[in-house]
Amino acid sequence: MIAIGFIGAGKMASAIINGLDKDKFNIQISGRTLDTTQKTAHTLGIKAAASHTELIESSDIVVLAVKPHIIPSILAAYQINKPLVSIAAGMTLSDLEALTTSKQPLIRVMPNINATIQKSTTGITRNTNVSDSTFATVTAIFESIGSVHELAEKDFGTFTALAGSSPAYIYMFIDAMSRAGVLHGMPKDVSTKIVAETVLASAEMLLSSDLNPWTLVDNVSSPGGTTVAGVVSLEQNNFVATVIDAITATVDKNKAMSN
Ligand SMILES: NC(=O)C1=CN([C@@H]2O[C@H](COP(=O)(O)OP(=O)(O)OC[C@H]3O[C@@H](n4cnc5c(N)ncnc54)[C@H](O)[C@@H]3O)[C@@H](O)[C@H]2O)C=CC1
Ligand SMILES: O=C(O)[C@@H]1CCC=N1
């Protein structure tokens, strides 16, 4: 059984671990304090390592699941002589190489919070020290919690915006729609469920057809009907440009976080 050790056991590590099959992977965590690590491990049904050193020694693959600014201090304090996976936003392979050795196998991964329900859309890339079999193993780990896209590293920032951060923007869209439902007299829980179901089915419809999104917009918009009135209103309020600006801000922030 492959032993995976997570350094850092916050929201994202918990989302990934929640989704992983505990019969297939031997998972342990090491967080900031042992007490909290033990509580989190108990909740997740996995092992708490007594220390980062113990975790590194007993893992086949080590996942860094701390905030990007914590990574330099961890890599300065511990020599991780195992394939190292980083899920940190903005940290490039060359940032990580500068903090480790020239021989360190490094895999950069960008999962998303939908890992919790085994529906992460994950990006992956590696440095030249990673063997094909290790890369296949790490890819399989993330495939077990959703889809995996191998990317050129130059596209990681864009991927981070479109898949890593976008659940937040999609929730904002859902909340705005359901708030409109409240404005027009519906209870919030009812309108949120209606909007969430419709977002899910619309995405499924797009993925299962060969049609592009604008053709699907046209299919909903009856001549002189209700939908086109809303489409025109969205455009008058710069919906498309506003969304593109948000993605560009995310990509720019990702670049600014790299050294
Ligand atoms: N939240 C998300 O949707 C996503 C987050 N990420 C990346 O995942 C990483 C973790 O993010 P979150 O889980 O959201 O943050 P978080 O704040 O929930 O988790 C980070 C954890 O690291 C722990 N920690 C701090 N110092 C530590 C140390 N020295 N040793 C061990 N643990 C330590 C903290 O106590 C905390 O539990 C970040 O690098 C982020 O860029 C990537 C994709 C999606
Ligand atoms: O906000 C962040 O920096 C992380 C990366 C993608 C999602 N959350």
Automatic annotation (TrEMBL):
<feature type="domain" description="Pyrroline-5-carboxylate reductase dimerisation">
    <location>
        <begin position="153"/>
        <end position="257"/>
    </location>
</feature>
<keyword id="KW-0028">Amino-acid biosynthesis</keyword>
<dbReference type="InterPro" id="IPR053790">
    <property type="entry name" value="P5CR-like_CS"/>
</dbReference>
<keyword id="KW-0521">NADP</keyword>
<dbReference type="Pfam" id="PF14748">
    <property type="entry name" value="P5CR_dimer"/>
</dbReference>
<keyword id="KW-0641">Proline biosynthesis</keyword>
<feature type="domain" description="Pyrroline-5-carboxylate reductase catalytic N-terminal">
    <location>
        <begin position="4"/>
        <end position="90"/>
    </location>
</feature>
<protein>
    <recommendedName>
        <fullName>Pyrroline-5-carboxylate reductase</fullName>
        <ecNumber>1.5.1.2</ecNumber>
    </recommendedName>
</protein>
<dbReference type="InterPro" id="IPR029036">
    <property type="entry name" value="P5CR_dimer"/>
</dbReference>
<dbReference type="GO" id="GO:0005737">
    <property type="term" value="C:cytoplasm"/>
</dbReference>
<dbReference type="InterPro" id="IPR008927">
    <property type="entry name" value="6-PGluconate_DH-like_C_sf"/>
</dbReference>
<dbReference type="InterPro" id="IPR000304">
    <property type="entry name" value="Pyrroline-COOH_reductase"/>
</dbReference>
<comment type="pathway">
    <text>Amino-acid biosynthesis; L-proline biosynthesis; L-proline from L-glutamate 5-semialdehyde: step 1/1.</text>
</comment>
<dbReference type="InterPro" id="IPR036291">
    <property type="entry name" value="NAD(P)-bd_dom_sf"/>
</dbReference>
<feature type="binding site">
    <location>
        <begin position="7"/>
        <end position="12"/>
    </location>
    <ligand>
        <name>NADP(+)</name>
    </ligand>
</feature>
<dbReference type="GO" id="GO:0055129">
    <property type="term" value="P:L-proline biosynthetic process"/>
</dbReference>
<feature type="binding site">
    <location>
        <begin position="65"/>
        <end position="68"/>
    </location>
    <ligand>
        <name>NADP(+)</name>
    </ligand>
</feature>
<keyword id="KW-0560">Oxidoreductase</keyword>
<dbReference type="InterPro" id="IPR028939">
    <property type="entry name" value="P5C_Rdtase_cat_N"/>
</dbReference>
<comment type="similarity">
    <text>Belongs to the pyrroline-5-carboxylate reductase family.</text>
</comment>
<dbReference type="GO" id="GO:0004735">
    <property type="term" value="F:pyrroline-5-carboxylate reductase activity"/>
</dbReference>
<keyword id="KW-0963">Cytoplasm</keyword>
<comment type="function">
    <text>Catalyzes the reduction of 1-pyrroline-5-carboxylate (PCA) to L-proline.</text>
</comment>
<dbReference type="Pfam" id="PF03807">
    <property type="entry name" value="F420_oxidored"/>
</dbReference>
